[in-house]
From TrEMBL:
Descriptive protein name: DUF569 domain-containing protein
Protein origin, superkingdom: Eukaryota
Gene3D superfamilies linked to this entry: 2.80.10.50
Coiled coil recorded as keyword: yes
Lineage: Eukaryota, Viridiplantae, Streptophyta, Embryophyta, Tracheophyta
Keywords: Coiled coil
Coiled coil: 264-303, 350-408, 551-627
Amino acid sequence: MEFFQRAKVFRLKTSNQSKYLIADQDEDTVKQTRDSSSTYTRWSFELVEGKTNVIRIRSCNSWKYLAASEEPFLLGMTGKRVAQRPWLGATVEWEPIKEGPYIKLRSHTGTFLRSNKGLPPWRNTITHDLPGHWTASENMILWIVDIVEIDHKSTNGDSKSFKGNAVPSRLSNAVDHKSFSSCSTLSIEDDGPSTNSASSLEHSISFSNLRSMLDGLDDKVYVVTERTTSDTGRVLKSEIHMAKQSLKELTDMDYHGILSLGLYKELEKAISKLSADNKTSRQETLQEQLKTMKNDHNLATQDLVDYATFDSKILEIKAEVDKDVAKACVLEATLDKWFSDEYVNPRANKEELLMELEETESSIKAVEVLRSRIAKKNERLEEMEAKEESWQARQLEAERKLERVEKEWHSARVSSINGAKSSIVSEYSVQSAFEDVQTLEVKRAKQTFEQLKNAEFCTILSLGQDKKLEKAVDVLIADAKSIGRGKIPSKLVNIQEQLKSMKNDHELASQILVEHSTFSTKRLEIRDELKKDAAKARELQDLEVNVNNTIVDARAKREELLKQLEETENAIKKVEKARSDSMVEVEELISRIEQKSEGLKEMESKEKSWRVRKNEAERLLERVEKDWGKVKNSFSDV
């Protein structure tokens, strides 16, 4: 608490960033700022009754308290939000803890007031958090108490502090308490209610004393002419006469005129002469009362001068702010027009150049792609044409193989199959004569031979009858084997092997013919595509003379566009730099306007109290003049 004992108004400064705790103008947010001159960085404190070493910290602008809320600052983070609140019980209570030359501020939940730093959203924010929940240095919770205004009551219990518009009385310095107790009190008129009852009482007592002293002075004045010059303790008659004459002249003036013309010394001298001639305590007190009136007049006059200075300063700042605002508006309008002329046009030109460059690049790319495609297809066509001879040779070989297969099938059909058939038939006839039995499968196999013997071998394969033929041969072999007691006719075996060989040769030749057909089809397709590409290339040649010239011209145009684009970019950078430099001036002007506005706002907040002081000073001057009128009446009686 020792840091706050002498502080009436203070600022809280971070120990690690030289920033100040500031209550934002929205009267809700609390954050950090480097502007120490801002009135929003000023705070005061209040002691909490019944709790030792616990305070409430209050903003000097919004008059709201620094509160440790339960709202999370960011979702998923442990730090909680610090805000301005009118009154929320224990949430606005803080315990200052000394840490060397710094303090920590601990909330009612045990968390500490923390100044955050780094990138947004942490920059310039204030939170409260428990120790150990952050990885940064503990300097973030250390604060410096920067005292702005000292509370003199706390440093000297006997010193007096005058607040508001109360005018301190001087009567207590001039009049002893005994004279007050012996004097009667007069009722003094006033134009309005007095704000200082003690001052009114003192003035009432003062004028009672003046009245009593002047009444006692009547006899003294007239006795002066009867005193002898031999009395060395008296003033000469001529001096007394001159004092009376001066007093008479001064009573024709108001009290303000006497002071403003510097005639107070003459008044004081005249009173002094009369007081010296008649040494009484009342007359000396009268002289002191005039001095008190002079002091009151000087205080009131000084307050009026201070108010005039304050009012002039407000008008001067308002005029400066209006002038700066007008200058900022003119400068901003000029910058906008200049920027529009110097920046927008190059920017539009840049966009046009970029579009044109894109079109040129597209043209170059299209031509190059077309040429590349034609070149690849030509290479592929050349490769295929180089393979054409081998493919033709394979085709001829395949065709010859197919012919050979057909011939073999025909010879086998004419000789082998018929021979085998007669031999098989004879064998089967002999066997049937003895056994007279034939299976159904053998009959079907014979029928199959009868059906397929006149068909072409290619037709048999294409119709899928080769399996049926092979099965028939297998059945006949099995039947012959059973009849011949394990002996198989060699002709049937040869027919079986020859059929397998013929089938393999036919499939191989057919595959070669299919591949040759695919190869020929592909070559024709490529030739058709080349014809189309050539037609398209001829169209380009018709438009731009030839493809090569088109690419050369497009590339030259691209280089020119790139050069123009570079010049445009440089011009834009110059304009942006010039604008940035000008905006610095505008920002400085705006910052100056904001600072003056803050000062003006602060002064306007004090204007009400100044007006009260002015009214009090005017009433005090009126009261002094009324008192002087009563004193003049007393002098006129003399």
